[in-house]
Amino acid sequence: MGRKRLTNYVTRIKSDFYTTFDAAVNPHLSQLQPYPFEKLRALFAGVTPNPQYKEIKLSIGEPQHATPGFIMEALANGLKGLANYPTTQGVLALRQAIANWCQRRYGLDLNTETEILPVNGSREALFSLAQTVIDASRGYVPLVVSPNPFYQIYEGAAYLAGAEPRFLNTLPDDNFAFDYASLSAEEWARVQLFYVCSPGNPTGKILSLEDWKTLFALSDKYGFTIASDECYSEIYFDEANPPIGGLQAAKLLGRSNERLIMLSSLSKRSNVPGMRSGFAAGDAKIIKNFLLYRTYHGCAMAPPVQTASIAAWNDEAHVLDNRNQYREKFAACTPLIAEVLGTAMPDASFYLWAKTPIADTDFARGLLEHYNVVVLPGSFLARDVRGVNPGKNFIRIALVATLDECLEATHRIQQFAKQL
Prior knowledge:
The chain has 2 domains: about 30-60 and about 320-420, Aspartate Aminotransferase, domain 1, CATH 3.90.1150.10; about 70-315, Type I PLP-dependent aspartate aminotransferase-like (Major domain) (Aspartate Aminotransferase, domain 2), CATH 3.40.640.10. It is about 40% helix and about 15% strand. The chain has helices at about 5-20, 35-45, 70-75, 90-105, 120-135, 155-160, 185-190, 210-220, 245-250, 265-270, 285-295, 305-315, 315-340, 360-370, 405-420, and strands spanning about 55, 115-120, 145-150, 165-170, 190-195, 225-230, 260-265, 280, 350-355, 375, 375, 395-400. The chain starts with a helix and ends with a helix.
């Protein structure tokens, strides 16, 4: 066979091969829904905001208070650590700082070697925890349960672990209680992971000790792991009554940490979302497997971030100042928004969950067009369950901007709502 004929033959074979065998793709990726902010961009397509007003963005839960100077200084001082590979477990000084904070905040005595694991923000840990604890080899499709509305990472983590998400509606008329009865006994038997967020996103609901007792009883009966997302735990209004944490609830009820993992973060507490720093703590068996998974996953925290995190966990003065700023904004804005929308002070967190007189998507689109204020439609944060989307006709307002900007946005929301 001549060289030209051979070249043509090889080209044809390669063409046939790539036509027959497409590149392999994880099939679970097709189950993922667009992220809420992708939906928001699509919703706002073609909208021209009123140029009379400067944009005020209250749609994303991104803290906009100033990062404390001592944290930035510690980060800079830690730059020399860039010459070393970090360990997945993190340095002992960081784990000790986290343990000390857990003792001060919750009265916990955690083992720094077996019960604490630094993570790069609670978001990546919430996702990778599902990949660690879900076992899809048991002859049935596992279920992952979360509240509805919810943080969409829970859903994505479930799908990509080979599980199916199930959502428990939480409605204002029921004080945002979980609708446990919506799952059958057969479904509960398939549950392997339950995500709970307290204080909740977007409602701000705090689980009481009785709420935790009920959830623990279900975990004992059906053997599922509880992932307690506590990234908003330090944004609250009553200094005498901070939100109870999952591990704290277990201790108060005389329980061990079996099948329970708490995930916390510095992002909201210390105004460092770009630092991506948090921790997972709890059941030593799960932490051991989580450490193994993360070692292969390649998500060790950068040394400068570890240094800055130690400084942040060791200080409470900046956290109190942070809370005071949110407290001032909620006190000023909530009554004004409540005059035109159905809302009230949340238990905690920095969101107002407000009922709209028209469709939440129409409200958000109109508010942007006429008054250049960006909020997030509640329906983007929930799924239809039994014909009900509990986020429908609600908006999430993140009071993360300055007091002046939040007040200005509040007045614009009032003006728009009064025209409806």
